[in-house]
Amino acid sequence: MSTDEFTAAAPPDPDAKGTGETSFADADAPPASERAAASDEREDEAQKYLALAQRTQADFENYRKRMARENAAAQNRGVAKVAKELLPAIDHLEHALKAASGHEDVVKGFALVRDEIVAALGRAGIEAFSPHGEPFDPNEHEAMAAQPSEEAESGTVIEVYQPGYRLNGAVLRPARVVVAE
Are residues 81 and 110 in the same domain? Predict the structure, then answer.
């Protein structure tokens, strides 16, 4: 073997460029102050984009909540409209039940229809209320007449002409009542 040959066991020439240990002396690196300024700019830009993403996410969450409220309100308006159309039919069924007394088959048929309609309204969130014996409340009752009464206190509902109806707690139709004087 000659001395000019290179072997894996022979150490490289320490004075040759690119050999031996890595040295960053010949690298073109910007000064530390420029690196810090560039890093600050990148950090500021990252913070700006993070804030933008957070605002966008909050805006979308608010939009989603608003749409859910508006959809629920629209659904309630639709249910209220249908219910207002059906309530007179229930009232007429009640009158027919009273008029058909003595004809038990007819009474049973009317009662069955009435009960099915009332149950359907109940499933839609509509409930009837009859304020007999309660204090008169103009927000929930419509006074049809006032009568003197010895059994009831003044301002108390003594008779209910038509029951009232509520949709999810809000008065859909006030109860028509007679109030004690």
Answer: yes
| Cα dihedral across residues 87, 92, 93, 94: positive or negative | positive
Q: Closest Cα partner for 126 from 157, 74, 96, 84?
A: 84
* Among candidate residues 67, 82, 66, 65, the one with its CA nearest the CA of residue 125: 82
Residues 58 and 118 in one domain: yes
Let me know the angle formed at the C-alpha of 133 by 128 and 135, rounded to the nearest 5 degrees.
90
- Residue 27 in tokens: 């690298």
Of 20-24, 85-89, 177-181, where does the model show the most confidence? Answer: 177-181
Residue bearing tokens 């839609």: 124
Tell me if 11 is assigned to some domain.
Answer: no
Q: What is the pLDDT of residues 34-52, one digit of tens each?
A: 666 778 889 999 999 999 9
Compute the distance between CA of residue 93 and CA of residue 108 in angstroms, rounded to an integer. 11
178 and 144 Cβ atoms separated by less than 8 Å: yes
